[in-house]
Design brief:
The complex is a heteropentamer, with two copies of chain A (299 residues), two copies of chain C (348 residues) and one copy of chain E (301 residues). Helices cover 70% and strands 2% of the residues of chain C. Chain C is an all-alpha fold. Chain E is of the alpha/beta class. Chain E is built from twelve helices and twelve strands. The chains are: A alpha/beta (299), C mainly alpha (348), E alpha/beta (301). The structure holds adenosine-5'-triphosphate (2 copies) and magnesium ion (MG) (2 copies). One adenosine-5'-triphosphate sits between chains A (40, 43, 45, 63, 65-71, 112) and B (171-176, 201). Chains C, D: It comes from Aeromicrobium wangtongii.
Amino acid sequence: MSVDSEQPETGSGASHGLSSAALPPVGTAILEVRDIGKHYGNIIALSEITTSVRAGEVTCVLGDNGAGKSTFIKILAGAHQHSDGELIIDGVATTLGSPREALELGIATVYQDLSVVPLMPVWRNFFLGCELTKGVGPFRKLDVEQMKLITKSELAAMGIDLRDVDQPIGTLSGGERQCVAIARAVYFGARVLILDEPTAALGVKQSGVVLKYVAKARDRGLGVVFITHNPHHAYPVGDRFMLLRRGKSMGDFPKQEMTLEELTAMMAGGAELESLAHELEKTMGPDSEIAKTIKADSP
Amino acid sequence: MSVDSEQPETGSGASHGLSSAALPPVGTAILEVRDIGKHYGNIIALSEITTSVRAGEVTCVLGDNGAGKSTFIKILAGAHQHSDGELIIDGVATTLGSPREALELGIATVYQDLSVVPLMPVWRNFFLGCELTKGVGPFRKLDVEQMKLITKSELAAMGIDLRDVDQPIGTLSGGERQCVAIARAVYFGARVLILDEPTAALGVKQSGVVLKYVAKARDRGLGVVFITHNPHHAYPVGDRFMLLRRGKSMGDFPKQEMTLEELTAMMAGGAELESLAHELEKTMGPDSEIAKTIKADSP
Amino acid sequence: MATATVGDERISQTSTLTKLMKRPEIGALVAAVVIFVFFAVTTEAFATASGASTWLRGASTIGIMAVAVALLMIGGEFDLSAGAMTGFTGLVVGVLTTEYGLNIWAAIFVSLALALMIGAINGILVMRTGLPSFIVTLGTFFVLQGIDLAGTKALIGQVAIQGMSNVPYYDQAKKIFGSSIDVNGSGAGGQIYASVFWWIGITAVATWVLLRTRTGNWIFAVGGQQTAARQIGVPVLKTKVGLFMTTAGAGWLVGMLLLFTTSTVQSNTGVGQEFIYIICAVVGGCLMTGGYGSAIGAAFGALIYGMVNQGIVYSGWDNNWLRAFLGVMLLGAVLLNEWVRKRAETAQ
Amino acid sequence: MATATVGDERISQTSTLTKLMKRPEIGALVAAVVIFVFFAVTTEAFATASGASTWLRGASTIGIMAVAVALLMIGGEFDLSAGAMTGFTGLVVGVLTTEYGLNIWAAIFVSLALALMIGAINGILVMRTGLPSFIVTLGTFFVLQGIDLAGTKALIGQVAIQGMSNVPYYDQAKKIFGSSIDVNGSGAGGQIYASVFWWIGITAVATWVLLRTRTGNWIFAVGGQQTAARQIGVPVLKTKVGLFMTTAGAGWLVGMLLLFTTSTVQSNTGVGQEFIYIICAVVGGCLMTGGYGSAIGAAFGALIYGMVNQGIVYSGWDNNWLRAFLGVMLLGAVLLNEWVRKRAETAQ
Amino acid sequence: ACSGTGKEDATKENSQDLTYAVITHSSSGDAFWDRVKSGAEKAGDDYGVKVEYSSDPDPAKQSQLIDGAVADKVDGIVVSMANPDGLEDSIKKAVAAGVPVVTINSGVDKFKQFGAITHIGQTETIAGEAVGERLKGEGYKNVVCVIQEAGNIGLEERCKAVGSTFGGKVSNLQVDGTDDSAVQATITSQLQTDKAIDVVLTLGGQYAIDAVGAVEQSGSKAKIATFDLSEDVIKNIQDDKILFAVDQQPYVQGFLGVTTLYLKDINGNDVGGGQPVNSGPAFITKENADAVLKFAANGTR
Ligand SMILES: Nc1ncnc2c1ncn2[C@@H]1O[C@H](COP(=O)(O)OP(=O)(O)OP(=O)(O)O)[C@@H](O)[C@H]1O
Ligand SMILES: Nc1ncnc2c1ncn2[C@@H]1O[C@H](COP(=O)(O)OP(=O)(O)OP(=O)(O)O)[C@@H](O)[C@H]1O
Ligand SMILES: [Mg+2]
Ligand SMILES: [Mg+2]
């Protein structure tokens, strides 16, 4: 179960993905959005968001529940089409018709609902859409052994020790499933890696591994979009922080301009936090950890 | 959006649930398990677990991903039947045939996968199985207005500001959905409240509210089972900590016997954490927050 | 918190009309109106009192079953024995009265009891074995079909009930199940059959149950996500068995309506109709996968089916093409339906 | 990490047999064996070469369709036009050759092209409109049925193809689609028909595709969770349209087998068979909801159906009860099937 | 033999825009009823009247079709009464509304009672009895009667009538008429099981062809007889593969049904004078096969 530096380098998969486009220099905007908006029927989930995802940078998207974070990244991933504004990829305004188009541009995504097919075995889920094959012509067949092997080892590297990669993924625990989704995206992500609350269901150790992956991807020059509710996860790896509230952008801040405390306060909704801390103090006694933490965080 | 102490007391719902059995005195074991085990086909998910859930106490179940936590609480909730050992409720060994039986005994559960019916409106999901009605005989009908009102206000109290409780719950964001499931369980939980990673998808503020609810339920004399991967969430509210590893219990510790640091170390898997911290230091620089935290946590 | 209710900036303006438009049955309603207008304009007899009485009658028996089947489909199950059940119940009454001289009301009661029992067996088999209802009820369907044919032949020596109208108290039962009311006084044409009233009544009750009772809530839940429903404490078994019994009960009612309107049923009555019911339910907005739909939508679906069926005859189109027309019209109706629904959903 | 592979204490011992037992088709296999033994013991002719040749032949055409339909069902869709397609393609060839004197191979090719086109239309309609395939293909079914009847009638003045065996090169085509091989030398009985070989071939190819190719992976994925599959980058449209075309292609093949084995098809050939295919697929372990099943299982399902159908005749049971027997046997087979599967799944 | 009558009368002046509904209990695609339809339509063409054909095997639906025709104010209805009880109300209503009704094919016992002007046809019973007698006369002992549609009243009655005059054993065999391959397989199985069977009697021309294949395949010595004709049936009769075919002359039933209504309308005739008119049956054997081959190929016999 040890996650040590001797193990083979995983998640270094520029060559695995559908696209093997060369990575642009660090700091170049790979994805840009301008005044982008999205509504579902009469529900306006997102409006007038402007930001960019740059090579070698981690953009954290922060915000309350229902703020529109998942909606935002689904647009970047091609899973939803935006209703207003412009989505610019490599300098060209486009609309991603399907997630496959995004994948072909080297954009890999971990969705909040994970996008796994419950009845299929773990290894089939891992390689779904990018299956390894061997043989030629009509006899080209899946390289089952290889795929099982890779799946097993990639998950092991995340600290997930599966009994059997042939198990239907629907029978895995929540965290195990999340790890499969992350390992898959990291393995296939070529230029941009989008992670929607990847650490939500993970244990301390697994979370650490994911953060490590994020940092590694950044160092390799990928653009990363990272969503989390945990400021302790966001702050160490993030380069820029975009704050959403009720579907609107509250701004886009570089790391230099803020401290962890400011970030936490921002995520929790500022002023309102104080009253919560107050209340927790009442219920749990003033020496309670959480009350102290929240109190310390509130401005 | 403010969560202040003036708002009506919510989550005080001993009278809402299916059961209105009187609460036993604080410290009495409501649920006990003895050497309980569960296997799915040839997969042994849990073996030889012994612990108890006491009135007025919060039992935290900790463990790595796939350790068997959800399996454990599903047995308590009646969603799965145990394969070995004994489940003792109010001193009587029983097997819960269905979640409904558990509910009738006053045991309310928030499952990790939330148990919502995606196509149904939020309010219908909230009251599913415990609908409010008015009128008599054949003209007894759903009290729709009342149910909508309660749903809206209970969610508001958690800091979730829904546009429309008539929206299918499948269209809510992950966190919003989680809040519905929690609010429902809190509202109907009469004697035991079981929460499986309730704060996973929640923002800082909503997490605070959930912790507050847990503390309140405990103070009202309910037995609470609380699963989380976040030691900062577990420590302040927990009274006892049960640690699972690979389907086995590593022990059951009262709060007095451990510090937050010990708890964190235990959750992360002890010795192995050091190497992770080491690695993170390498990738993110020694001053990185997360590396520091993990390093500090490791014994 | 309170500020969120009025003038939420995250919702664009919506009219009450748009809200109404989001009901699952709206598409079917529009399609029904379009089809009515089409045939009313292109044929003479269609929109007359006597013409309408014909297609209403045709739609009514299908409609009753479609509504019951819609409930079942919303609850996530199918019942392929529903069609054969209509013949079975009619045959039971016919054989018991014409051959064995049983009192007609007793026979009616016996056939109801049998129907409910078969429904319960269907439900319990499905729930206990975990087999798909499609297969279980297919088995029941075959068995019923066999009984209908062989049983009837063995007992009365032919494959259709004859001489029903000579049975004592036949008229009493006919009052309830088979009578008709003249609309415009003239004897010829323009009657409304009892089945039409039954149809309207059943649709109203089903809609009420579905939208305004706990049972309705449970039906949506067991169809939408059975595991979730069970985990939350919905009595899944009871709900599903109840639904199967409801469908069987509706089959019985339709059997009675057929028997007492035409005074005969045949051993193959209802065979093949089971899919028509499903079709009507789907046209009316039910999802095949369960958890979504409406009873009144299914009634509209049956109306569409009845109107198209009779309208094609009135149009005088070559009978050989009947099926092709039916197919095109159905597809057209469903496409229109879907289009309306999509428009409604994305309406601002 | 490495310690986890061997001797994981969280897994109890499993034999290879148990592993095999977890395949979806295992239940159907066991049921097929049981039924075979049952009829072999209770009847004389069943297990003879000539008896087997009869039920194998009956099972083969249904089996080919069942395999194709199983793929489609695993992909999460239905095709109700599959039955009518077999008649349609046969009629096209029959009409073109007997009435218009087209070269037989050209006619066969034309009908294949038409079938694939209809399949593609089905698929594209389903995917583009978002309507359930149950409804879309029902529309196609009705339309095909109408064309089969009215078109044939209009073109050749009757409802069945006549004089097919006088068409030039008929024997060539019959070699491929309609010939038979004597097994035991004696002319009477014991033939294996071409359709049986086709059936085995198709099943083998389908199984290979499903389990060992990317396409197979995608089929499982689009049926199991379409949204997830799309999000992960599976070409959903291509996969589904391909499946509909495969089913249509299988319909064409069966149409040819029917035409060249019996030298005739009629306008209602295949009508109603579409459900038999679905039944065989489900008996063979496919889920109605998609995402799970096997091709070889569907082949076993067809075998069960074929054996039961002929076995009842061999048993000399009262023929009127045919349907009832069929129903009971089907239910029995599926129950056995499910029981075996459950045992296998919880086996330690 | 009755076709073509009245063609000369069919002048435009006489036809006065008449519309007749022909409503039968046929299921779609049935070869027999297809010929009834052809006959009725041919008569319509010849007389310059409009003929609207519709059908449904379910008596409830068939009675709705009759009601519908009355609502449509047709000038006459031709109806087949397989299940008289089921149509009684509707036919009486039609008669009460002043629409002349002619019954065809089946329902000979009830037509008067219901107020129809006449009955044209030949019940299933007459044809069946004739077949039974003929087979008995030729010395056969064991007949299997192949029913291609379970529970179809007409088919059941035919087999029953065969049994009533045949004397020997008559057993029914249900087959799936929409799958010729299965029909052949099932007949084969039956022949393999019961070696005593010496005649296979099919109830539609199409299935006789399947039976020919089945007899060959099973190596049985059984002979084949069939109801209804087709080109292939006649060729097989010529080749001695089929004993005989019973021609119920469905074309006549359709044609005369319309003709009767037409004569009533233009000339006040009551064809048959209140007595039923028989349309058949005729036996087609090797001797007279050549003469009907041409008509069978047209799809009118
Ligand atoms: N239905 C099932 N069939 C087979 N194995 C299962 C099934 N459900 C769970 N398991 C296995 O049992 C083990 C325990 O699962 P469980 O969901 O209890 O873990 P958990 O402790 O809740 O993990 P997490 O923190 O990731 O939610 C996992 O390894 C999982 O793969
Ligand atoms: N398909 C949909 N139809 C209608 N409304 C939707 C739909 N999907 C999302 N919404 C609404 O849009 C808003 C934004 O949802 P989104 O999932 O983007 O939130 P989020 O920021 O990811 O929240 P969380 O942190 O809880 O995951 C929510 O209020 C949600 O209810
Ligand atoms: Mg989200
Ligand atoms: Mg869990």
